[in-house]
Write a structure and sequence with these properties.
globular; alpha/beta; two-stranded parallel ribbon; binds (2S)-2-hydroxybutanedioic acid; 11 strands
Length: about 400
């Protein structure tokens, strides 16, 4: 019966992680998947998360009922406030936020919702982008196109090109943008460029869909949130998907959120209802545990402050490792062009290494990058940075 089922070609990120886990070499280094590793090479359990777990443990044990379709109410409230800040106080009535199964679940729920109301729209994603963007929107039935994101040198954003492309799109086209820490390039728009984009989107009736999986890990939480808050203040309709996997180191709990910014509270009420329906037909309702933890941390001022300090330490360690790798490569090869390491920001660096070079580095040195040349900076530490530098220098 299933004779015609083709072999799954694998996922460029998750399948590589499986290969890494099978690699018997003890010196192997994982710079592939977007995990934050600490200076000892471990994925940390945050202190704020440990405290939230103990708070949760002391609460009266209640029966483990299903959550509502749109998730834990306290989580939804806290998250909307955290994402939109002051813009929530001003525009919160017309924003709908629901809890989702990670960031991927948020994108999928948003995509399914959009497909129902804009069935003929196209989705435009950046070239390059996170591979799953294409797969999720295609899976929801959309035609997916790519807009050029980088100049030919691969080192700067092609802002004029973005504007020219978006000016040419028909009304109601959905445009996926990375709110910060662009994955894989590590290059983000400046505040003035976001403002210019949103006024273009308003004029041409385009629908922005901001994806935020790394808020706080680029230039810090306030700067990284600029696009989300400016979108809410711009008066246009848009969507924001958000993941708590990296920033709370809660990968396995699948905690995320989807917000839809509407034009009025009346519309927001109807959208909220339809989003519940979308969740019901996907997975009925989201899981409870991770959302409880995030809600406790965001809602308790001292825990929130402690978590923000941990987030900032993670960010700063990545900045330090960027400089350490840069210095090591420059010492080995003074003329190598690795400035990108210190000019890009967030969890990833886009090295420009070819897929063949990435394969050679993996085979020879046991160092794993994504084949598009993306390096996860968070996998670097004092013990492996020299070996990584030797490997990259040998191909640069
Ligand atoms: C990544 O880009 O490595 C992460 O977002 C993990 C994933 O699901 O691909």
């Amino acid at each position: 019966m299933f004779e015609h089922v083709e072999i799954y070609p694998g996922d460029p990120i998750l399948s590589l992680m499986e290969d890494y886990q099978k690699d018997p070499r003890t010196e192997k280094v994982n710079l592939s998947i977007g995990f934050y590793y600490d200076e000892h090479g471990n994925v940390p359990v945050l202190e704020s998360v440990k405290k939230a777990k103990s708070i949760l443990d002391t609460r009266t044990q209640e029966p483990n009922l299903y959550l509502p379709m749109d998730g834990l109410p306290s989580f939804r409230k806290q998250v909307q406030q955290y994402l939109f800040g002051e813009a929530d106080a001003e525009h919160g009535e017309r924003i709908v936020t629901l809890q989702t199964v990670g960031g991927s679940g948020a994108i999928r729920v948003g995509a399914d919702f959009l497909k129902r109301y804009y069935p003929d729209a196209e989705v435009w994603i950046s070239d390059p982008t996170w591979d799953n963007h294409h797969a999720i929107f295609k899976g929801a039935g959309f035609e997916v196109q790519r807009y050029p994101y980088l100049k030919e040198d691969g080192r700067q954003i092609n802002f004029e090109g973005l504007i020219a492309t978006f000016e040419s799109l028909p009304a109601n086209t959905i445009v996926l943008l990375h709110a910060c820490c662009h994955n894989p390039t590590g290059l983000d728009l400046a505040p003035g460029q976001w403002d210019a984009l949103f006024s273009l989107f308003a004029r041409r009736s385009l629908i922005p869909f901001l994806d935020a999986a790394y808020l706080g890990l680029g230039e810090g939480l306030a700067k990284d949130s600029y696009a989300i808050r400016a979108l809410a203040g711009s008066g246009i309709t848009g969507l924001v998907s958000n993941s708590f996997s990296k920033v709370f180191s809660l990968y396995g709990e699948r905690v995320g959120s989807l917000s839809v910014i509407c034009q009025s509270s009346v519309i927001a009420g109807r959208v909220a209802g339809q989003l519940k329906g979308t969740v019901r037909t996907n997975y009925s309702n989201p899981p409870r545990f991770g959302a409880e933890l995030v809600s406790i941390i965001l809602g308790e001022p001292s825990l929130r402050t402690a978590w923000l300090a941990e987030l900032e330490r993670m960010r700063q360690r990545m900045v330090d490792m960027r400089h350490a790798l840069y210095d090591e490569i420059k010492t080995l090869k003074p003329y190598s062009k690795v400035e990108y390491l210190v000019t890009q920001s967030g969890m990833f660096s886009y090295s420009g290494l070819t897929a063949d070079a990435v394969d050679r580095i993996r085979e020879k040195h046991g160092i794993y990058f994504i084949r598009n040349g993306r390096i996860c900076i968070a996998g670097l530490n004092a013990l492996n940075v020299s070996r990584v530098a030797i490997a990259i220098a040998s191909e640069s």
